[in-house]
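Regression check, protoporphyrin IX containing FE case 416:
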Amino acid sequence: MTTTQADLTPELVVDFDIYDPSVTMPVDRMQEKAAELAAIGPIVWSTTHGGHWLVTSYEHVHAILRDPETFSSHPNNLVDAGQGKFLPIELDPPEHTSYRQALQPLFSPNRMKALEPRIREIVIELITSFQADGKVEFVEKFAHELPTQVFLALMGWPLEDAALFTDATEVALNGRPGETPEQAAESRTKAAYEMFGYFMKVIAERRAAIESGEAAAEDVTSAIISTEITDSDGLQRPLTDDELARMFFLLLIAGLHTTQGSLAWMMLHLSQNTEERDKLIDDPATVPAAVEEILRFEAAIAMGRRATTDTTIGDVPVRAGDQLLLLLCAANRDEGEFDDPTSLDVERTPNRHLAFGSGPHRCIGSHLARLMLKIAAEELHQRIPDYRLDPEDPPVVLPSQVRGFARLSLLFTPVA
Ligand code: HEM
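Current build output:
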């Protein structure tokens, strides 16, 4: 039997809902809310979404992520777009291992390094497109575009397809703004269906290109399609179309919104901490550590886990079948792990943040994400260093398990 509210002392019970728009208004409300939850204890019970635990402490989040036997990754989402399991993020070891290994070489540091010149080119093109204007809606013109274009280059997919999957992945994650929960569920399912149609087309075309010898050996899509996995009977077999589609869908969802969010959080927080920003402007060598600090300071992901057996977290009993949500934003500001955690310190060391997770599902795209953030930070701080928030057009953040920006308007001194 799973936990119900009746089993709990009232002080452990909250009505926090990660999908509630008030959680992101104003933009730093989520951090305030997370601190309030952490002040109650390392684990509290939310009555929303059928009831689930919220874990806030660094120690417990870290331990749960590294214990897939007790805490399954399925379901990872509190809301479901009806797409079936996302691969490999919703599989547990040992099943997970083979799918993960199929993806691993594609994101190796060496492959990422080779992408660096193209990433810098895209970054410079994007900044050049708005630098003379003295203002920019940063999400549309930069934070969204950069990971989208890099992702398309990595996968070898046509740039003109960006609009389709941009809209569909946004809706598959969040529904459409202003919808009722039922309408949002319907929109999410429809968007997921559209995406699968797109992937099936890509897969069919790519299989044909591989067979005719036309596919470039180095493109990631062909490489994934040609990969063999070891199934539960120990037999080697290629991935099915359905498995491939679910992997591509995850790569998109995992790669775009997360990076888009981190780029925007970087600009927001550095515009509000100009002494820290000056360090990046004066010495680009500080950028890698600053990127780590941005990732720590604003970890936008809250991943789900489900207890597979009765256990305890701290001294709180958790039952088999209970759903958990791990609030990385709280763990990354835990005083037990970080000195002065609510201050942004671009030279912070050590900085063992959990923004990319930990354990078997630790982010496979972390090298790519770091590279995009680093190059973006270097070029933006050299080209439009005095950016500030536009007081006439306040930032808009969308609530979700991957909290990200809808708008971030910036003003800066125009560059001819
Ligand atoms: C700043 C940007 C990013 C952040 C903060 C981030 C964060 C995360 C986190 C926290 C996880 C673990 C989820 C869990 O344990 O349930 C994860 C997994 C994953 N990420 Fe990222 N990510 C980022 C960028 C990317 C990029 C650019 C890609 C690829 C294009 C990517 C692909 C993946 C994949 C495939 C997984 C699942 C790995 C597995 O299940 O073994 N991520 N990411």
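Comparison notes: The mean pLDDT is 92. The first helix runs from residue 29 to 40. No diff flagged against the previous build.
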